[in-house]
């Protein structure tokens, strides 16, 4: 029988496996994704940045975060070998439960234009599109 998949908070020791997973999933690192910054995020929002583990292997991730007003979802990823078994749904449900538990009532996420097809995945989970103009600045 295959190992059951457990979802748990990530630790700094998971970072190499997470990087490899994101690479396999086509999620490219941002300049903010240094080990130091990711370690700081794990400390800043304990219990929100999650990994899915099958045996000793990291097969999924979701980087939920909370800015004190809104929840955010980043880096949702399921290893290609583990797709199609609702692990993405499980990761999202766990992230939402944990955000709700700390007082979050709205969750936001962004989709890269070259990954627009994934909108269907999120719509099934109740996410709607909001026609905002997204602006940003590196400081
Ligand atoms: C998106 C992702 C996490 C989904 O993981 P998963 O565990 O395979 O998804 P699930 O098994 O929970 O899928 C549930 C449903 O969503 C659909 N779905 C899954 N991935 C999808 C995608 N990329 N685009 C559109 N629909 C998708 C499935 O077809 C399934 O639909 P159904 O209910 O009609 O059968 C996975 O495809 C992935 O890691 N993609 C690459 C990284 C990525 O794009 N992340 C999101 C960044 S915004």
In short:
By secondary structure, the protein is of the alpha+beta class.
Write up this protein.
- 22% of the residues are buried.
- With 139 residues, the chain is α+β, with helices and mostly antiparallel strands.
- The termini are far apart.
- A hairpin with a 2-residue loop joins strand 2 (49-54) and strand 3 (57-66).
- It has helices at residues 15-24, 35-44, 87-101, 119-124; strands spanning 5-9, 49-54, 57-66, 71-78, 107-109.
- The model has no long low-confidence stretch (mean pLDDT 95).
- A five-stranded mixed beta sheet has the order 1-2-3-4-5.
- The structure holds coenzyme A.
- Pfam families: Acetyltransf_1.
- Keywords: Acyltransferase, Transferase.
- This is GNAT family acetyltransferase.
- One of its GO terms (molecular function) is acyltransferase activity, transferring groups other than amino-acyl groups.
List the helices and strands and how they pair.
Layout: E1 5-9, H1 15-24, H2 35-44, E2 49-54, E3 57-66, E4 71-78, H3 87-101, E5 107-109, H4 119-124
Organism: Thalassobaculum fulvum
Protein name: GNAT family acetyltransferase
Domain N-acetyltransferase: 5-139
Number of helices: 4
Low-confidence stretches: none
- Overall mean pLDDT stands at 95
The overall number of domains is 1
Placed side by side, the strands forming the largest sheet appear as 1-2-3-4-5
Task: Work out the helicity level.
Answer: 25-40%
Approximate shape: globular
**What is the makeup of the main sheet?**
5 strands, mixed
Tell me the CATH topology.
Answer: Aminopeptidase
InterPro entries: Acyl_CoA_acyltransferase, Bact_Acetyltransf, GNAT_dom
Protein name: GNAT family acetyltransferase
Pfam families: Acetyltransf_1
GO molecular function: acyltransferase activity, transferring groups other than amino-acyl groups
